[in-house]
């Protein structure tokens, strides 16, 4: 009797699908639906634009504050345990919120409930995200020379969820707030169940002192400084994110007031950008096999810089949409390079802390971009975007010039 032998590559792919890709897909969709859906829920429940803006702040401020804690806890307890607990906690919190809104669809109780949901889901989502990223990085290390393929798939999952999540949340909100929350809760519960099959990640030794949030970020910062390749790439992408964040923050003003389009056209810009990013990730996945990290990253940096400079001077809406899509495609390619590089270089027992510090640094330009947009007259936004685009181009040029001979990117 013959016994069929399953190729190792097929076994590895099946393991990645069950332990990494499926839980990441469910978590990313719940992430996108809660991030974009809860502010919509606040508007539908309270009819207050001010409270809607406050809810958005309540989602992101706790997330930024939780980065240090999340990284330290993941390093201490392991990615799979934190992934399960954070997803289960989010499912229970959102299910409770759905029940309260079903019983009290309006009024003070409803308003307080949706604001609490915004803050609590923001923190729990950050813990699940850091845990999922750590598990994905561990899978990349196990994949060896195919690490960039794993990171490309994970980035594709994130972009697909970003494309589908807001639209799905808006559609479900038409049915009613409890229905939308019930679906997000079900997705979070599914994530928790799938996380039970996520492979464990390396953890810090039990005798090591417990990290606080600040200590976790300090550990991450020191690790970034000890890895020049990672430090330069993070620096370049941080400056790039200032330009990208400004385009996001100023997008409604530019599209509606400058180009005379509807608010729906603003969403179309970022839907096109998400689609272009998915295409870029697919192309980069093949190109990295043939060319390596530095040529692909440098090419994406050039495309992003040129597109951002041109977008600041775009003569009409269609050209603006295309240029923003090209910019985000270039950003997507550089993100694959960053994900691959950090999975190779960051020590496993410090990955959560270093990942938290990295993401925090990369996200800091976005509130700065919001302040710039608020302080800049609409007629002068083009000049500010041009200045940020020049800063982006200089930052990326210096980063990739320093990285050209670095063995980490030439490998």
Helicity, as a percent range: over 70%
Helix segment count?
Answer: 15
Number of strands: 0
Q: Estimate what percentage of residues fall within beta strands.
A: under 5%
What is the mean predicted local confidence, pLDDT?
82
Kindly, what is the distance between the CA atoms of the first and last residues, rounded to a whole number of angstroms?
45 Å
Secondary-structure element pattern, one letter each: HHHHHHHHHHHHHHH
| Largest beta-sheet characterization | none
Decide which structural class fits the backbone. mainly alpha
Write the layout of secondary structure elements.
Blueprint: H1 8-46, H2 49-77, H3 79-103, H4 108-143, H5 147-175, H6 177-195, H7 213-226, H8 228-258, H9 263-291, H10 293-311, H11 317-345, H12 351-363, H13 365-375, H14 381-403, H15 407-410
Helix pairs in contact: 1-2, 1-4, 1-5, 1-6, 2-3, 2-4, 2-7, 2-12, 3-4, 3-6, 4-5, 4-11, 4-12, 5-6, 5-9, 5-11, 7-12, 8-11, 8-12, 8-13, 8-14, 9-10, 9-11, 10-11, 10-14
Description:
With 411 residues, this protein is mostly helical. It has 15 helices and no strands. The protein is globular and about 60 Å long. It starts with 7 loop residues before the first helix and ends with a helix. The model is unreliable at 1-6 (pLDDT under 50).
């Amino acid at each position: 009797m013959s016994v069929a032998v399953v190729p190792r590559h097929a076994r590895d792919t099946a393991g990645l699908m069950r332990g990494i890709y499926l839980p990441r897909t469910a978590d990313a969709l719940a992430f996108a639906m809660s991030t974009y859906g809860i502010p919509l829920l606040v508007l539908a429940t309270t009819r207050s634009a001010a409270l809607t803006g406050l809810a958005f702040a309540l989602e992101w401020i706790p997330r930024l504050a939780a980065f240090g804690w999340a990284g330290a806890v993941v390093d201490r307890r392991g990615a799979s345990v934190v992934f399960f607990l954070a997803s289960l906690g989010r499912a229970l919190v959102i299910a409770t919120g759905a029940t309260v809104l079903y019983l009290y669809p309006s009024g003070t109780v409803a308003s307080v409930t949706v604001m609490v949901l915004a803050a609590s889901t923001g923190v729990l989502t950050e813990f699940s995200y850091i845990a999922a990223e750590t598990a994905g990085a561990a899978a990349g290390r196990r994949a060896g020379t195919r690490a960039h393929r794993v990171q490309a798939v994970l980035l594709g999952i994130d972009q697909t969820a970003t494309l589908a999540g807001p639209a799905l949340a808006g559609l479900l909100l038409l049915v009613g707030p409890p229905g939308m929350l019930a679906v997000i809760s079900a997705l979070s519960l599914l994530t928790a169940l799938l996380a039970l099959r996520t492979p464990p990640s390396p953890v810090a030794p039990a005798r090591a002192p417990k990290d606080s949030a600040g200590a976790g970020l300090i550990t991450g910062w020191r690790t970034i400084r000890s890895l020049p390749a990672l430090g330069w790439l993070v620096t370049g992408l941080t400056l790039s994110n200032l330009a990208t964040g400004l385009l996001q923050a100023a997008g409604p003003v530019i599209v509606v007031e400058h180009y005379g389009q509807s608010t729906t056209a603003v969403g179309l810009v970022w839907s096109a950008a998400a689609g272009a990013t998915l295409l870029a990730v697919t192309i980069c996945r093949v190109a990295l096999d043939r060319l390596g990290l530095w040529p692909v990253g440098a090419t994406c940096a050039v495309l992003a810089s040129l597109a951002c400079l041109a977008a600041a001077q775009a003569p009409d809406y269609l050209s603006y949409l295309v240029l923003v899509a090209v910019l985000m495609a270039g950003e997507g390619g550089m993100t694959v390079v960053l994900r691959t590089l950090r999975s190779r270089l960051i020590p496993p027992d410090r990955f959560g802390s270093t990942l938290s510090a990295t993401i925090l640094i990369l996200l800091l330009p976005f509130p700065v971009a919001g302040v710039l947009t608020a302080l800049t007259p609409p007629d002068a936004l083009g000049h500010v975007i041009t200045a940020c685009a020049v800063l982006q181009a200089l930052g990326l040029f210096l980063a990739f010039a320093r990285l050209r001979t670095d063995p980490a990117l030439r490998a």
